[in-house]
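FAQ
Q: What does a multi-component entry look like?
A: The components come first, one per line:
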Amino acid sequence: MSRFEPWSEERTVEIVTGHSALEGPLMPILHAVQHAFGFVPEEAIPVIARELNLSRAEVHGVVSFYHDFRHELPGKHVLKLCRAEACQSMGCERLVERAEDRLGVACGDTTADGQVTLEAVYCLGLCASGPSAMLDGRVVGRLDSNRLDQLLKETRT
Amino acid sequence: MMLRIFVPRDAAAVAVGADEVAAALAAAAKSAGAQVQIVRNGSRGMLWLEPLVEIEREGTRFGFGPVTTDDVPSLVEAGIFEGRPVADIRHPLSIGVVDEHPYMTRQTRLTFARCGITDPISLDDYRAHDGYKGLERALAMKPIEIVDEVSKSGLRGRGGAGFPTGIKWKTVHDTPMGQQKYIVCNADEGDSGTFADRMIMEGDPFLLVEGMTIAGIAVGATRGYIYLRSEYPHAGKALNAAIAAARKAGFLGPKIAGSDHAFELEVRMGAGAYVCGEETSLLDSLEGKRGLVRAKPPLPAHKGLFGQPTVINNVLSLCAVPYILAQGAKAYADYGMGRSRGTMPIQLAGNLKFGGLFETAFGITLGDLVDGIGGGTLSGRPVKAVQIGGPLGAYFPRALFDTPFDYEAFAARDGLIGHAGIVVFDDTANMAKQARFAFDFCAIESCGKCTPCRIGSIRGREMMDKVMAGEDTAGSLAIIEDLCNTMKFGSLCALGGFTPYPVMSALTHFPEDFGRPAGKLAEAAE
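Then the predicted structure of the entire assembly, as tokens:
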């Protein structure tokens, strides 16, 4: 059971049309597409390009430029660990190693069972409460190995 | 009588359990039959005390922190739900009167005056605490007088470059009327160690709305965009709530507060590209393009968003404006030193005992901030290095702790204030590793448009790998210095242009971490 809709051209057109009143609508459209489908499917690119009167290359260029836009479905859970300087000063790299070790994947990858995607993030703005993380949109500060293990446990559900 | 209890909604409080504490307090109040209103305020900025729970007695607020759900029963037992005098409430987590806490009394809060005090998304609360006073005065002035007021205040761009805000406004003001102009707020606060934008957007979002509205009236712009980084979902919610409330009350829309001025505002989400914090890259992103840096000129003030005249300012710059308008340019300019006027919301971060937001006039020394206010490292180990101004800022050793917080003073020591984030590292930090990270980060985040940044960062990372492996240290470091020189002077924007700051400062001040004898480089640096 995915929490996302399966890709459909009609739905994509509907999303694009829903943003037609905006100036410079491509970024909001891509966010909305990813919100609906979980990622920006390859098939969506020519549809968006056609609807906005852009070339496929232009849309592809934008999708591939931004770290946030996914090219495939994420795991059921997404765990982001901050690896920027303030969290480095609090030892985040040890936690990243621990998470990679426990999950058996490197940052940026999804576990084989599709349960969790582990990602690096460069700053959540929780720089005085580090190391910090975000699990499925929920922010977590003052992370240590115990709290990380709790988060990892949550990703198994 | 209804008692008010405050539990912050700030992401830094939520990240350490504020939502759970608020829920536990609500449940406890219900079962005790107590008449309690739980207000989700912004954060006071004393982040080591979060979640900081406050109770109010006769207008004075008393704090307890850091509170966990386990502490709720003992707080209830101590009497926080009862109207009795606070002197009778004894609890180990009590910090007394919040406004009298030394961390608060040492600050000068102009921009953050309301943050943590009010309910951030209540327009009534905002107005009851002097909100929209700046707009009120602006509406009684001519646009050029508003611009002059901002110029006279000495306000400089708080995003990092320190460019005078008044000059940007004047340039857009002077472009012909009758064309679409824009106000764009750069809320892409990607620098590690900075969180002031996030805090003020979550804790006092109407302030940004008011600042942008005033900017719009001053330069003749009727549309505004807040470009917010996607890592800040809480700020997005707060801003959208504030914008909706302001629109409903007539503070946004075709007739601002009944005047003939129109202004509309929209929040746009970034998508995780650090370089979009650079203003021209941000504009391209807003237009729906790859966030590539533009060559200047033309300046955004002449050809900005969609090729139209655009004021693009940082969150804190725009948030300083309502105070300047309400209290006058002089009141603001009376704070500060040299050409750095007013106050700076400084962010104390990293390995620090008392991390948080500390707004103060320019001029305080780095040492005062790290040792005095920040209390030294959380780990209890000696401070080794302090990075000021984000990933593109220099690493300073203790020897430079007498540097006053001032744009020019930092520049004179090959550093920068940037967005005023300070990240403290203890003596376990390896500065060669930090220098490698600076190159690595630049390589990951480079927009790719200019060669020094795109290629230089990757070559730099390779050279650092050699240095760290002990291969041809002297030769590799010579190449790194050369690369840094090329990047500094040849890059199109600050990403490639400033990456040399963390690299070269680490190399200059901590040569031993690079396998260089300490004395030798000091001579070379002379």
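Q: Is there any commentary attached?
A: Sometimes. For this entry: The beta strands of chain A are 77-82, 116-121, 133-135, 138-140.
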